[in-house]
Amino acid sequence: MKTWFALAGVVVRELYRRKDFYVLFVLTALITLLLASVDFFEDVRVVRYLREVTLLLIWVSALVIAVVTAARQIPAERESRTIFPLLAKPVTRAQVVVGKFAGVWLASGLALALFYGFYLLVGALQGAPGSWTLGLQAFWLHWMMLAVVVSMAILGSLIFSAPSVNSTICFIVVAGILLLAGHLNVIAAAQPDPWGPVVYGLYYALPHLELFDVRDLLIHEHPPVAWGAVGVATLYAAVYAGLFLLGAWWIFRKKALPT
Amino acid sequence: MNGRTTILIAGALVTTAVALAAWLEPRSEAWRGRRAHADSFLLALLGDGRRLFANHFFVKADVYLHSGYYPSIFDQARAACEHGVGADPAARDHETGQGHGAGPATPARCTEECTHDEHDHEAHREAVAGGFMGPPRDWIERLARHFKVTEHTHLAGGHTEAEVLPWLRLASEFDPHQVEVYTTAAYWLADRLGKPEQAEVFLRRGLRANPDSEEILLELGRLAWQNQRDAERARHLWQAAERAWRLHNGTLNETNRLVLGRIVGLRAQMEEELGNYEEAIRYWTRLQELSPHPEAVAQRVASLRERLAAMH
Fold first, then answer.
1. How many domains does chain A have?
2. Do B165 and A40 touch (CB under 8 A)?
3. Which of B76, B79, B128, B195 could potentially form a cystine with B189 if both were Cys, beta carbons 3.0 to 4.6 Å apart?
4. Residue A26, pLDDT score
5. Residue B145: closest CA among chain A residues belongs to which residue?
6. Partner-chain residue, chosen from A40, A182, A229, that has the shortest CB–CB distance to B146
7. Nearest CB partner across the interface for B74, out of A186, A217, A220
């Protein structure tokens, strides 16, 4: 446990030393404030469009931070050869995988907390803060979704040759899942054999990241989600993150490290 | 390479670049198409592709009107499969109890429908379990419903209707020739938010981009009468609307009769309210030929004739 925290601490410190987060945060804040200043028919009470754009920017920024940070963790250690002293501590390969995951996930969570804090602040300044409970649920679900994405990127970093390739593939897969995964069962029903069962299989196998997207509920001021459903979604994310990390450990323990 | 040579080479390159630009510029107009004469940044940047964005923003306004409860393209495709692709969308909507899928439903029209037969509409909707989504097919979909908008509500009261306006404004920026955007926004501004001045300014802007648009002229006339009680101005605007309609439509058909019917109907209503019964009868009689319910209009004409006879 102590080893995991030590490894995770290094990753968190790396995030605030790098400029990625600051650039994305400033960009999000700038675009949001610029949009907030736009006059639509002299009506200052219009807020939902602003929520929509801000949340979209938060989703894009969080995804970029999580994927890019996770994708470079193990390759960077291998490239700079710091992986050898690390494994000689002694730290097991499983601890490296879990420690790196915990670090990126925590760092993403910190960044996400700041983004959501900004979102709530903008809402409060506009006189429409919305439901704090739903805001908290949105943050939690988003963070759980990032756990799946981060573990997926860590697994990818052990499969693909370069962090850039891994990041690009992760972005495509995550975007594809967010846009299509929820509709694969409908598509499967319209396919002839054998494609119908194949698509249905894919529907059950893929992690349904769209489950964690409650932006519409936030934007349109719907009531909060039942806590039981949030609990099931959390468990669902934990299972997929666990599976990806298990895969990552399995590949990493067999991987020869270049000397 | 010394400094003098560098300056000379740089000078030669700049001269060549300017000469080439002067030679290419007039020729490029041919291959740049309409973008070469773009009068706005968006047209120069996106070309005709901006219309896609405009449509997206217009639909977005409808999504907002329904507080996010809206069918995705997959839901629409499934509905088309289940109810037949060529089926009448209105009949299909009524059957499923939705009425606001994609396509021709507009925020303004939808609210009118909703206001007029809210109870029927809701009853129909409730009759279909799960609304347009149907019952969940598996446990993943059942779980996903907790995180989606599954309640059909409309923006109403508390000034919430204004939430559709940014998208309509954006749609007009992306495609200034989409007339429906101006008339829809004008409806919300004038009829639901009590801002007839803003509605008129926006309609005038639409008229500048679409001179001779009968729909915009019709709405301007409606504003002039209903909000400013300026009968003379309303008459002129509706006459202009009718002229524009005749200019654009050679013969009467099922599609274009609606606009002409609205022009004539509003004029008839105004003349009746002003006590100009002869004029009103003239317009109601014309509407009789255009209306899908001529018997109701005929009754109105008969009642007006009686009133006119009593006056004499």
1. 1
2. yes
3. B195
4. 95
5. A211
6. A229
7. A186
Nearest by CB to residue B141, choosing from A185, A214, A226, is A185
Please state the domain extents for chain B. 52-63+172-241, 68-154, 249-312
The rounded distance, in Å, linking the Cα atoms of A215 and A113 is 16
According to CATH, the topology of domain B52-63+172-241 is: 1.25.40
Tell me: pLDDT of B85 over 60: no
Q: Which residue of A has its CA nearest to B74?
A: A183
**Nearest residue in chain B measured CA to CA from A209:** B144
Q: Check CB contact under 8 Å for B68 and A203.
A: no
pLDDT band at residue B119 using 50, 70 and 90 as cut-offs: very low
Mean pLDDT of B59-64: 93
Chain A residue numbers touching B167 (CB-CB < 8 A): 49
For residue A190, the enclosing domain spans 2-254
Q: What is the pLDDT of residue A45?
A: 80
pLDDT tens, residue by residue, A248-257: 999 998 887 7
Q: Considering CB atoms only, which of B148, B163, B189 is closest to A48?
A: B163
CB contacts of A41 in chain B (<8 Å) are: 162, 165, 169, 185, 189, 195, 198, 202
The reply to whether B16 touches chain A by the CB within 8 Å rule is no
Instruction: Report residue B213's pLDDT band, with 50, 70 and 90 as the boundaries.
Output: very high
Could you tell me which CATH class the domain B249-312 is placed in? mainly alpha
| Tens digit of each residue's pLDDT (9 = 90 or more) over A159-172 | 998 999 999 999 99
Average pLDDT score over chain B: 82
